[in-house]
Design goal:
Blueprint lengths: L1 E2 L4 E6 L2 E6 L2 H4 L11 E6 L4 E6 L2 H11 L6 H10 L2 H9 L3 H5 L6 H11 L12 H7 L5 H12 L4 H10 L1 H4 L4 H12 L1
Parallel strand pairs: 3-5
Antiparallel strand pairs: 1-2, 2-3, 4-5
Helix pairs in contact: 2-3, 2-4, 8-9, 8-11, 9-11
Length: 191
């Protein structure tokens, strides 16, 4: 498997290479020279056949539900899935967190409102397994230094979810650390 900078990878299946678009947050989890399993959604257009791969079946299901929302195509759905896992998306929808959706690149106020309205009945609590740690890290309460660290990590190319999770892991120490040390420790956890 070869990784590209655009969120895609080439998956070798019995000697045939398939370009598969994967959420950026999952791309680094995929092995380069070992077998990998992806749950694939095939998107057919008049002019193209696109493959979208997910580490979990729940993420693929969430991606497919995003595609049912008016005005959301595969590119925007992939951006959302790059920022949120299925469980995090379900939690955001359940808590009606419009601002969290608006923080995702490409999701404006109208799109966020449509996502909340159209997905609230399609993502019932029982459809996605909740991980309390994941739910807490989806929108942690950060102090000024924590928020600044998240902003800096986002400017470095990490998603907002990755930045918040890294800073949240250090929350006990974060209050006593200056911004520079907090950034170094957060970068170390992001690896």
């Amino acid at each position: 498997m070869d990784h590209a900078g655009d969120g895609s990878c080439v998956l070798d299946v019995a000697g045939v290479g398939y370009e598969v678009f994967v959420p950026v947050r999952n791309l680094t989890q995929l092995p380069v020279s070992e077998p990998a399993t992806l749950h694939v959604h095939t998107h057919v257009r008049e002019d193209a056949l696109m493959l979208y791969g997910f580490v979990t079946a729940e993420d693929r299901t969430a991606f497919r539900l995003l595609l049912t929302v008016s005005g959301v195509g595969p590119k925007l759905a992939m951006v959302v899935m790059s920022d949120l896992s299925a469980a995090e998306l379900q939690a955001v929808i359940a808590r009606n967190e419009r601002q969290r959706l608006e923080a995702i690149s490409g999701v404006g106020k109208k799109t966020a409102a449509r996502l909340l309205l159209e997905l609230k009945d399609k993502l019932p609590a029982s459809s996605v397994t909740f991980d309390p740690v994941v739910v807490r890290s989806a929108a942690p309460k950060l102090d000024d230094v924590g928020s600044q660290a998240c902003d800096a990590l986002t400017r470095m190319g990490f998603t907002r979810a990755q930045a918040e999770a890294a800073v949240a892991q250090l929350a006990v120490d974060a209050h006593a650390l200056p911004l520079e040390q907090l950034l170094r420790r957060a970068l170390a956890t992001l690896g």
